[in-house]
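lol ok so funny story. i was supposed to be doing the assay writeup but got distracted and ended up predicting the structure for this chain instead. priorities right. anyway since i did it might as well share w the group, maybe its usefull for someone
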Amino acid sequence: MVLSCDIDLLHPPQELEKRKHKLKRLVASPNSYFMDVKCQGCFTITTVFSHSQTVVVCPSCNTVLCVPTGGKARLTEEPPGFDWRFYTSWHLDAQNYTQETALRHYLTVGRHQGRLAAPLDIRLKPIACGGLCNQLYSHIHALIIARALNASTLLLPPALRRRSFGHVYTAPDGKNTTSVRWSFSPVEGLLDVERMVEYWAARGLTIQRTPPLRPALSFKTGRLRLDSNLFVGALNYNLPEGEGCMDTRVRPPQRPLPLSAYLAEARTAIGADAMPLLRGDPSARIPCVYLDTHCTFLSVETVRNLTLAAEAARGVFFKRSLVALADQVVGALDAQGSGFNGLHLRLEKDARDWHTMAGGTEALIELYLQSMKAAGFTVASLVYVASGLMTYDAGGELQRFREKVAAMGLAKRLVCKEDLLPMSALAGLHPEQLALVDLLVLLRSTHLVGFGGSSFSFLLQELRALQGRPRASAHLLYPPGLEGPLAQHMFATAGRLSD
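and the output, tada:
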């Protein structure tokens, strides 16, 4: 330690001089100085004033070199992994920030709040919805969300299948006796998963086959069981342990949301779950995030994102054996004439509410007949009918419809797949697989008449358009009660897949 009585006044020690006011030193000298700072991004050397009162950025790459503190400026080094482009795209209040202002915001605000500052490994966990085309739309929307979120992985959920409708609607008075009972089945029963994996891998998205499911606790029996009706918010997958991944759930929307709004909700949910971890340790690493999206059926508006929607729809491939069955049906139809027309006859008992809106089943049949006439159906062409009536063992209703069509000269003959394929070819297929065969056949019909309130008919219309068929070749009828926003607005905004 240097005492004041021990110093040479003509040659005072440097450490003592530093402690004095700059004007009371032996030779007055400032505390400030100029220094050469090497940029950590491009290694350009910049001369910086030590007490700069403004933010100094690299002239070559705009990386922030120092920020003012009121005294000596603080040199800044970007936190490990900080990505200013991710930061500005992820946080709504930073969307218009430059690289300089984004870093300043993170250092002064975001880091203390525990905000995400680097890209995450996001893995989507959607749920399939009941019904064939509801499931297909769910897959398409999940792919749209995965692409928009720049997710790395999409976990394919198990398919949902039901027993034949004939086991449900059996009451003599025609009313529903029980609700439809759904059960899990392998998604490979509907989709060509191998082809989807290959297709999306080339586009930077990993399609993961359905992981094993863990039993869930039944609130009714208190027993562990695998039951699709138990999973309301998320599927209980048996995922690898030890990854340290974070589980986040995004609230399912009540109506289709603009894609930007849905992404904002997903990012908010992820950020809220990550914040407690990062607030305590900004350098904490989150290996991955499993994002439970619930059922994504018509969850986002596609009409403003048709390029993304078309890409997603083209990336859903169907089980090859079902495609082969559809090819057999089309071959049998072509052998009986030149081309055929298609009809989605929505007269099943589970659509009884729609029948009521139309004024009853007979009134709905009249609407079908008028639509077939307007679409140009004539006695010269065969008409292929997709209908669940066969699963009800309700051949009588279908026969009466055939008689009315014949009386009006709207078809050479009405045929179903059961008329064209041996029963052994259809044996063992569940209702969703049978419906998929119908969908694949109707995609190739010359003209199509369908029901506007049905996801089956609307998806048919969109897939036909994706194949290059004129939109005018598909005619969807809307009973008076379905002309409102429920049927038309929802499908038109969230079900559209192409121009």
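Residues 166-174, 217-233 have pLDDT under 50 and may be disordered. Residues 123 and 429 are 32 Å apart (CA to CA).
back to the writeup now i swear
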